[in-house]
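Long-time lurker. I teach an intro course on protein structure, and each term I like to show students one example going from raw sequence to a predicted 3D structure in token notation. This year I'd like something fresh instead of my usual example. Would anyone be willing to generate the tokens for the chain below so I can use it in lecture? Attribution to the forum is fine with me.
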Amino acid sequence: RNEAAGTNLQFLAKFKTHAGEVIQVKVAVSAVSTANALQNLDAEIPGWDFDTLREATRARWDRELSRIQIEGSQEQKETFYTSLYHAFLTPNLYQDVNGDYRGFDQNIHRAKKFTEYTVFSLWDTFRAEHPLLALIQEPRDSDMINSMLAHYDQSADHLLPMWELQGNETWCMIGYHAAPVIADGFLKGVKGFDAQHAYDAIKTTAMNPDYDGLAAYRKLGWVPCDEEDESLSKTLEYAYDDWCIAQMAKALGKSADYDYFMKRAASYKNIFDPASGWMCAKDSSGNWRTNFDAHLFGGGTNLQDVTEGTSSQYSWFVPHDVPGFIALMGGKEKFVEKLDSLFDAKQSEKFTKELSANDLRGCIGEYWHGNEPAHHVIYLYCYAGQPWKAAERLHQVVSTQYGSGPGSLCGNDDCGQMSAWYMFTCMGFYPVCPASDFYVIGAPQIPQAVMHLSNGKTFTMTAENISDKNIYVQSVRVNGKNWDSPFLPYRELKNGGSIHFLMGPQPNKTWGSDARIPQ
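-- Reply from a regular --
Happy to contribute to a lecture. Here you go:
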């Protein structure tokens, strides 16, 4: 056999053919060995009947894509099912047909009682992609959690994956977002993984003394900007991840751990600057960074306090304690004013120079839909009792930043997260805080959706009178009951049922105005 290695390999094959002749080529891959690749080939494509293979593949995708059945225009259907296809593409299968895979330790392992997956873009996908899989592809989500645990077991640092790619850690993003995926899966009833082992893994990861400023974060209550880049974003994301760990600890009866991680989850308060009303970088002595600008990329010229954005975008990342954040802001009225200012802001030239023209298609003022930290922000209007404002912005994003043509996404799909946001939003609710026991009701964007849950039940959404003008929720019924809250408890969904929206052309400002979070 011939072998080659390098960063720019190319393969050229020449065939002697006659006019009209069709050349067929079969290709198989393995991260383990050539022999395994051939075994994969023989098992998955044993024959040379292309049409039969194509139809079998089509039938398998039809089964997967029918997990959610919708009604709507042709463009809506094309956009929705393209999104569902995107959401199912990653994580990718990473084992051979015999169960062999190349592990994080570069040794060959055999998966037992689970299927090994790779490509965990966890900074993106913990938000909506994995919560969607937990509902409609529970066995795959379980396999993915087991794959993360295998990574942890093989890690010399005893860390869960951060942004894993083909058995390697890229370290390219922040947080320890395997924690919300595991906690949300556990609390949503995903089965097939060892809950105690999973909890030990997320706790050990969160206690690692060498990972990205965690030691200082544990000591001070924030990540100091004079010791660690992206300190503002890391503080906020660690606090949320810690809250997720606390929820799993509570469910497992670990009261001391619950109290400890809930205290850490409040760390976001330590970097809120009441003078500016934004999150601000703070050094190890507790001093605010003096040249910090909440509206500039990174926090200011030559600063790297914020991950891929501005503080005005990132400050809203307190999904686990929005009422507490509203109180810091000075109450619901000031909170809504601040939210409005995000969308109404005039972008600074220093900000726009950091982005390509394609990325800027995702910007509404300083709201940046093309980057995941913004994905929950519109739904925060619902916590302040003004879901009608969320309806306006949701309709604006869906109608301008999604579609069925080439280039319809404002940026890349980030392994299904952009698409998962769209599908949840179309169905009228969104997992603002994975690992919580409720979703936030926004405003549906399509007439009907039937979600086939992994437990065999169905949950149906209908939007009566919906149109391009009738974008506002007038009333809601959940499982036949009048529903005035902008929150949908998981218990109302998990055993199947329905949510029915009545839509209209003007806001009903009384619906959803009582924003008490369900207990």
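Some talking points for your students: The two ends are 64 Å apart (CA to CA). The chain has 19 helices and 20 strands.
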